[in-house]
Write a structure and sequence with these properties.
CATH architecture of the largest domain: 3-Layer(aba) Sandwich
Distance between the termini: 39 Å
Order of helices and strands: HHHHHHHEEHEHEEHEEHEEEHEHEH
Number of helices: 14
Radius of gyration: 35 Å
CATH topology of the largest domain: Rossmann fold
Number of strands: 12
């Protein structure tokens, strides 16, 4: 996904920090050794800081060398004076040389100078590690030997950053509670109470308020309570539909590069949106010939597997793992190729596509909306994706990686708005 340049005045000093963290999260090889090469071409701020550490290290080394050379020079001069004095006094030359060669301080200084021999100046892994120290102290990244890992806190920070950048390109949507006709789930009672009106459901009756109203009206002189319609009070309800979002991402070999990075951005953005709507949830599945569920904060650290494409297994995994969820379920399937695998075995497009169609029908029976985002425009893929979306009453989008974030976030917000606008 493209990230537009933004003046740091808008985000304060965290702007460059967010951008650096973003680029760290999108490195395919998250290692200090690889970062040394990567940051020369990107992450200029990080490289400049690393270069400052390298320059400081070189300066300290030069200072240590100069100090050691001065001490060695003083030692040699002192020995020369002593040698001349003792030779004039008739001392044994061989003994004096043995004394000089055996001097421990001289040996130590010469060894120290050998260790401090000038080397080519430049950034090393230790300089890079020092430049990441502020991220480590803030618990945004962890470093284990040569490996760099984005922490859950770092992922949360990135999610806010990515969503903010995506929303700059949106026409403007608001989020909030979602009204729905279905009151079997997502119903919360507010603090308001009102008189019963014809047509109110009986389960909304506030028994305590109704009882107190009847007692206040009739008293309890003979131990009986007589109810009239005017005594009946009902609770005001707030209808808030939970939205369970599934993000099913193809991690086969063809998705390398910008495609998988854009899908990662979508994961970050959707995680932030579902966090803002506390009743909503998001599940992330990566698939090739195998399927795995990944917490959103770990997607920045996983190694993408490559391989063939089993779309049916990925769809089924979401359906079965959310079968207990009482929520509106909406899936975004992101892929750039046709299905060609079932149960870990390559079976070809025709057989695999039939299996996907069957799973789409199961989605439809269970009320799961399937949205397909196709990153390839091959005619037979267009036909397959369109047929699949129609069979499931979902939608199909044909997109470039740079447009993925806008498409999915905008569609998510539209879905929220549609739910909110449903008539009770």
């Amino acid at each position: 996904m493209e990230i537009n340049p933004q003046c740091e005045r808008c985000t304060g000093c965290s702007g460059s920090e967010d951008q650096t963290l973003y680029e760290l999260g999108h490195m395919d090889d998250k290692s200090l050794s690889n970062l040394m090469n990567e940051c020369r071409h990107s992450m200029k701020g990080l490289y400049e800081e690393a270069w400052n550490h390298a320059s400081q290290r070189a300066q300290e080394k030069r200072g240590n060398m100069a100090a050691a050379m001065d001490r060695l020079r003083d030692l040699q001069e002192n020995f020369s004076y002593k040698l001349l004095e003792e030779l004039v006094g008739g001392e044994d030359m061989e003994r004096l040389l043995d004394e000089y060669l055996g001097d421990e301080e001289r040996k130590h200084l010469e060894e120290e100078l050998m260790m401090l021999e000038p080397t080519e100046e430049g950034v090393c892994a230790e300089d890079i590690k020092k430049s990441l120290q502020q991220y480590i102290e803030k618990d945004l990244v962890e470093i284990d030997n040569d490996r760099i890992r984005i922490t859950p806190k770092g992922s949360e920070k990135l999610a806010k950053y990515v969503l903010r950048r995506i929303r700059e390109n949106l026409s403007g949507f608001s989020t909030g509670t979602n009204a729905t006709k279905e009151e079997g789930f997502g119903v919360a009672y507010g603090f308001g109470r009102r008189k019963y009106e014809y047509g109110d459901e009986f389960y909304k009756i506030d028994m305590e308020k109704t009882l107190m109203s009847a007692l206040e009206r009739t008293g309890n002189k003979d131990g009986s309570i007589r109810f009239e319609e005017e005594d009946v009070w009902v609770k005001e309800t707030i209808i808030d539909t939970r939205l369970c979002v599934g993000l099913i991402v193809d991690e086969s070999g063809s998705m390398n590069g910008d495609k998988i990075h854009a899908a990662t951005d979508i994961c970050m953005a959707l995680s932030e949106l579902t966090t803002k709507n506390s009743r909503d949830t998001m599940k992330l599945f990566l698939f090739s010939n195998q399927v795995r569920e990944v917490p959103y904060w770990e997607v920045l650290n996983v190694t993408f597997s490559g391989g063939t494409t089993d779309i049916r297994a990925a769809m089924k995994k979401f359906r079965t793992s959310t079968s207990h969820e009482k929520a509106d379920k909406q899936v975004y399937l992101i892929t750039d190729t046709e299905p060609n695998c079932e149960e870990g075995r390559y079976v070809g497009f025709e057989k695999a596509s039939l299996g996907v169609m069957k799973e789409a029908m199961a989605f439809q029976r269970e009320g799961i909306t399937l949205n397909i985002i196709m990153l390839d425009t091959t005619p037979h893929l267009r036909q397959f994706a369109t047929m699949l979306a129609k069979r499931n009453l979902g939608r199909v989008f044909f997109a470039e990686p740079k447009d993925l974030g806008t498409i999915v976030v905008e569609d998510y917000l539209r879905s929220k708005k549609r739910l909110k606008n449903k008539k009770m």
